[in-house]
Amino acid sequence: MELRGLLTQTLHLSSATMLSALFGFFFWSISTRWYGPAEVGKVSSMVAALNLIFFASTLGLNVGLLRFHDSFGERATGTLSTVMSLTAGFLTLIYSLVNPLGLSTKEMWALTLIAIFGTIYNIFAYIEIVVSTRAYLLQSLASGIRVVLPPVLSGMGSLGLATAYLTGFIAGSAYGALRVGRLARPRVDREFLETALGVSIGNYLVGLTSLFPVYLVPTLVVSLLGSEAGAYYYLAFIIINLLLVPPGALGVLLVREHKEVAMGKLLLLGFAYWLLILPLVLSSKLWVPLLFGKDYVESADLLLISSPGLLFGTVNQLLTASMTIMKRGREIAVFSVAGALTLLLSLYPLIESEGLRGTVSAWILSSGVVFTLMAMRHPKTF
Length: 382
Hints:
By secondary structure, the chain is mainly α. It has one domain. Helix content is 83%, strand content 0%. The radius of gyration is 20 Å and the shape is globular. The model has no long low-confidence stretch (mean pLDDT 87).
């Protein structure tokens, strides 16, 4: 690929990823002005669980699509569409039956619709990343319509907040259907499945377990500490996720272009980025209340103590991408499982001893475990 083309696609991909994160950030920032912490906590936890389901339903085939689209074409995109649809449907059904948040019948209908259109939206997004990064950017823009709706629907309470979020997925899915809908026609290609799963399972487990803090833990926080605590936690990790977007986008591009980078350069790059965002994190008590309101100052407290985890998270994404290119999927899988177990096993005792702050301590601990394991096993080609 020519340098100009690579730079253009890099700009599209980074812009789309950043826009999605920013739209999510501003959506919740606006929502906190029109809805109470209990409503924000319930809906954000529901959305978080569904986002985890969306990623879990890929089974790693999104990474396989990045690596092998040139070889399999529509056989790969169609297989991804089929696997994601079936898996997301099954996982959503399980979540609905358990109903950990105690959703009402109307809220459950909203959850079902978000699950359907959210799955469609994500299928199109994964396809667009490999065939047209410009389309991915425009689909992200279309989904941004949800940002203006929370004030309009505030009279509906939590159901209005869920409907606003749903509208974004509907708008983005409509655009995606026009651009790449034909590539998502369901099919199952066994050769692609075997090839993709063999390479991407480690990256999948890393991605899945890295989402636990922002997508799984909110449900646990609401169950243990209440809906308001869930809102404080979710807003803090919305910001943390936003700060981790650039290294994540770079990791995707490294995998897509099969670009190997020496470990020393990855560590230096990760540390430089962390130093860049550190002043923003340390000043969070000044600007978080301005964005979300004075009722959400506890989110600033959580963000303030997250800085070590942000360093680990930044470097972990770069090391994961590098090891994926080296086809060290099994090691990545082991490291990610170790991190997830550390998070889940430490979460409850740390919440018991530190309250809501214990959630961040558990995340830092698990991220540190993953970093240590990766740094020990990554080829030190300085």
